[in-house]
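lol ok so funny story. i was supposed to be doing the assay writeup but got distracted and ended up predicting the structure for this chain instead. priorities right. anyway since i did it might as well share w the group, maybe its usefull for someone
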Amino acid sequence: MFAIVCVSENWGIGKDGNLLFHIKDDLRRFRELTLDKSVLMGRKTLESLPGGKGLPRRHNVVLTSNRDFTAENVEVTHFPVEAVFAAGEDGAIIGGGQIYDMFLPLCDRVYVTKVFASPEADTFFPNLDEDPHWQVECESEIFEEDGLRWQYVDYVPHEEEEDEEIAALLNSRPSEETMEFYPMPDLGNFSSFHGF
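and the output, tada:
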């Protein structure tokens, strides 16, 4: 899985349920990266999309605790594991804040649009620059549009940590009698879905 997000200088992503930035080139890039793929989001993110319905030419997966929720062009799920299976290993995590927090450990890449501005925000993405689990793989030149300057930065898991995790799995030998399975990363407390 991968995540795609547009952040401010302090990693803000939204305010009052709305995105902080609307950059045409960033929206074009988002479309290119997600077209014909699964996109996984929370209910509030879906409701912020045009018409409150799923994006065209995507398999839209929504995670919500609301059992009665339905929407056009959307597969509704109610548990994190269910959402992961619905989105598939090539799915894109597109928000909001709690969804990013929950599924970031499952991502093998994060496409970040870094905008050099700091408007007020009430929703934030984890600061990958301060997270030792992540490293910058590549970054673009700096672009400018309508007075805003931004840069595309791709993050991937830190190679040493990834190698250590793989080595730990290979060196472990579960008992055939107990048939122990390796746990998935913590997908969060199901009770945290209230409000999606």
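The chain has one domain: 2-193. The radius of gyration is 18 Å.
back to the writeup now i swear
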